[in-house]
Write a structure and sequence with these properties.
By secondary structure, this protein is an alpha/beta fold. The strands form 3 sheets. It has a 7-stranded mixed β-sheet, with helices on both faces. It is globular and about 100 Å long. It starts with a helix and ends with a helix.
Length: 775
């Protein structure tokens, strides 16, 4: 539809007698965006952009409908898509504008405000579908076909009153729903529950996460525009005692889909508007992965809302939480059942190569499966049959034996090697990594399996200590103690700024000794001050250095988040003033002592320099941060998000900030020094600052300040400093960390969950963490 929209826009613009430049001035949409839309280079125009263009062209109702119809597939002709969108938009505006209506304000929002959450929901649906389709292919769920995950209704003690689940009025007769089903019918099972609340219970490795993935894809295929968008959230990372459910959902949505950080209606982000208006259906995966003391408050917080949702958990952990408080209100629970020998007979032989030419149908698993059907003396199931009753262990067995011809699965029947279920499971878990890393991948480097075991063990222990399943690249440095992290940050920042300052000072002054002295003064001071800022900003508060959810747009007119400019001005001015005051006081003292001045003279000179540099650096930092805020524009919702793409996007943003901030801040310092000296001349005594000194101060301050900000206050800077330098230097991670993590994902050791990695299964993470502790 992008080509049709461009043709319609061009025709309507020409009919109005406007050039692209004139349309830019009228609409506020940049000429590059208009040109891209008309040529088809830009697809999926935002509804706010379409509304701006329609208003600027002063279109009649039929022309406006034609333009909107070209932008939104299915809108023309009054079809079902149009009706659904209108209903969803009206519902969203009703929910978001309730407060305004009660206050006596105009209840009907402008068209752009009405369209924003609806269009954002449709873009989110496309992004979610594309992401989990890729993830399903990566996990080989359809190769050769999905394992037959089945379920039954859970026990009554974990089930709420059926009248609540069926949303029946008081006194109406009620009975249980038939909740039995298979993997391919999970979306239909969910839609048969009137309350829209489903709990999926299953023991470790039974396929809960695969079921959640399949639910999202199947629900999106049959979803109408009026229905919410299912989004998977790893609930194991939620602390219900620190943040509310809706705020946490908003944070996670912004992290995994950065475009939802864009401003929405009512001066809130699109993520907040989507969650608050019920356009997001939370699929909360991994309730059992929450810390022991958090499951009860989490269940209480879920019961305090009426949000439709899907929750997955192991039965024991969910039952313990229910025992402490209550069942999930209005939720229908189902429990996954074990795989049968018939399931294994149908699946495992189809995963092996045909090696016997005399009998092409024969494979390595036939004799093993036949042996499992033979009755044991005590009539108890064979340990291997018990182990292979879960999809996780079947997948591990396939990797170790089906995909590796030199391994014979018949050894799994050896009761001397593997006397019980625990030994078999540990054998499969322990041999998974050596097997996948013994294979060579095209274009991938070879990794030493022993080092891989140590590196992945460190990552597993890191997640266990943080009590989260999410392996976020911007939090890898949190495996260090807070004091160690701050100390390393301060030392490396001091070294970098000292070297840069010394080299540039030597170049300006022509004296190597002077440059070394200046670098020796400025480097440690800058490291100390930036280290303190990092300590108070992140270590003391316990906050993370989050990747940026915006980019800089210097050309054209950015759809800027202007609300950031004011706070940035204040924070930048205060931080710059603090740095300038400390820097000026130390420099003044050093100059006074080099002139053999007395203590009182040294303090006076230090105070004068502190005031001058405090004003200079405060004004320059406030101006620079304010301009950065004005140039920021949100990312697109439909942008592909993966750990690697988020890292690259944050690197581009930080480098653009550095290239912009360094000259702006340097120019402001250089020019501001002369202005402040002129304004304070005579009031603080005789002040001297020659133009060459101002130029040198501005150049060094611009580059040094930008480097210090990058290393201490940005996610990419901390990634470079801690994850790319310190952790590899101490042997905890490889030097090529990003390549290693991506390779582990390609080999099936890790999985992607939006902007973060996770271990393929909690059992694998736990086993690696145990191995690390033993080592």
């Amino acid at each position: 539809m992008a080509g049709e929209f461009g043709a319609v826009l061009r025709r309507l613009r020409e009919d109005a007698g406007l050039t692209q430049d004139e349309l830019e001035r009228r609409s506020g949409v940049s000429v590059s965006t208009i040109r891209g839309l008309e040529t088809g280079k830009r697809s999926n125009p935002r509804m706010t952009t379409v509304q701006q263009l329609a208003d600027a062209l002063a279109l009649r109702s039929e022309d406006r409908e034609e333009l909107l119809g070209a932008a939104v597939p299915g809108r023309r002709g009054g079809g079902a898509g149009t009706t659904g969108e209108a209903e969803a938009s009206a519902a969203g505006v009703g929910a978001l504008g309730a407060g305004a209506a009660q206050a006596g304000e105009l209840a009907v929002a402008p068209p752009a405000v009405q369209a924003a959450p609806t269009e954002a929901a449709e873009q989110l649906a496309r992004a979610v579908a594309a992401r989990w389709q890729r993830e399903e292919e990566q996990r080989r769920i359809q190769d050769p076909y999905p394992l037959p995950v089945r379920w039954k209704a859970a026990c009554e003690t974990l089930t709420d009153h059926w009248a609540n689940i069926r949303r029946l009025p008081p006194g109406a007769p009620s009975g249980p729903l038939d909740l039995r089903g298979r993997l391919e019918g999970i979306a239909e099972t969910y839609r048969s529950i009137p309350s829209g609340r489903l709990v999926v219970l299953g023991r470790s490795g039974s396929g809960k996460s695969v079921l959640a993935l399949r639910f999202v894809l199947d629900h999106l295929r049959s979803r109408t525009p009026a229905e919410p968008v299912p989004v998977i959230f790893s609930i194991g990372a939620w602390d219900p005692t620190a943040v509310t459910l809706r705020d946490w959902l908003t944070e996670q949505l912004t992290r995994d889909y950065p475009g939802t950080a864009a401003p929405g209606p009512g001066k809130v982000s699109l993520a907040s508007a989507l969650v608050d208006s019920g356009r997001v259906l939370p699929v909360l995966d991994g309730f059992d992965e929450m810390a022991d003391g958090l499951r009860r408050p989490a269940l209480e917080a879920l019961n305090a809302t009426t949000l439709p949702l899907v929750l997955t958990s192991r039965p024991a952990e969910y039952a313990a939480a229910v025992e402490e408080t209550d069942v999930l209100t209005s939720a229908a629970p189902i429990e996954l059942v074990d795989l049968t020998l018939d399931d294994l007979d149908h699946y495992l032989p189809r995963t092996t190569r045909k090696t016997d030419r005399s009998d092409p149908a024969a494979g390595a698993w036939q004799s093993v499966l036949k042996k499992l059907r033979e009755p044991s003396p005590d009539r108890s199931p064979a340990p291997l049959a018990t182990v292979l009753s879960t999809p996780l262990m079947v997948a591990l067995a396939r990797t170790v034996y089906s995909d590796t011809p030199e391994h014979d699965p018949a050894e799994l029947l050896d009761t001397e090697l593997f006397p019980g279920v625990r030994e078999l499971e540990e054998h499969l878990l322990d041999n998974f990594l050596p097997t996948v890393y013994r294979r060579s991948r095209p274009g991938a480097r070879g990794w030493d399996p022993e080092r891989v075991q140590r590196w992945l063990g460190h990552l597993a222990g890191h997640l266990t200590e943080l009590r989260t399943p999410d392996l976020a690249w911007w939090r890898l440095g949190h495996g260090l103690r807070g004091s160690t992290r701050t100390l390393v940050t301060a030392l490396v920042t001091a070294l970098v700024i000292g070297l840069v300052d010394g080299a540039m000072a030597a170049g300006f002054s022509g004296s190597l000794a002077g440059g070394v002295l200046d670098g020796a003064i400025v480097g440690p001071l800058a490291g100390l001050l930036f280290g303190l800022v990092h300590w108070f900003t992140y270590t003391v508060t316990g906050k993370d250095v989050q990747p940026s959810a915006v980019r800089l747009r210097i050309r054209g007119r950015p759809e800027t988040t202007t609300w950031r400019a004011g706070p940035r001005l204040v924070i930048g001015a205060l931080g710059g003033a603090f740095f300038g005051f400390a820097y000026g006081f130390v420099v003044g003292l050093l100059h006074a002592f080099s002139w053999n001045a007395g203590l009182s003279s040294a303090l006076e000179l230090g105070l004068i320099d502190a005031i001058v540099f405090g004003l200079v650096f405060g004004g320059a930092a406030g101006l620079s941060f304010c301009l950065l805020g004005l140039l920021e524009t949100p990312l697109d919702i439909v942008s592909a998000v993966s750990p690697g793409s988020v890292l690259r996007a944050d690197r581009r943003t930080v480098l653009t900030q550095l290239c912009f901030w360094a000259p702006v801040f340097g120019a402001a310092v250089g020019f501001g020094t002369g202005v402040v000296v002129d304004l304070l001349q005579g009031r603080l005594g005789r002040l001297v600052m020659d133009p060459a000194g101002s130029l040198m101060l501005g150049t060094i301050s611009g580059l040094g300040g930008a480097l210090g900000y990058t290393l201490t206050l940005t996610a990419w800077g901390q990634w470079c400093l801690l994850t790319r330098i310190w952790l590899p230097l101490t042997g905890r991670l490889p030097w090529a960390v990003a390549a290693f993590l991506d390779d582990a994902y390609q080999r099936g050791v890790l999985r992607q969950a939006g902007a973060v990695y996770q271990f393929r299964h909690a059992r694998l993470q736990s086993r690696l963490a145990q191995g690390r502790r033993r080592g």
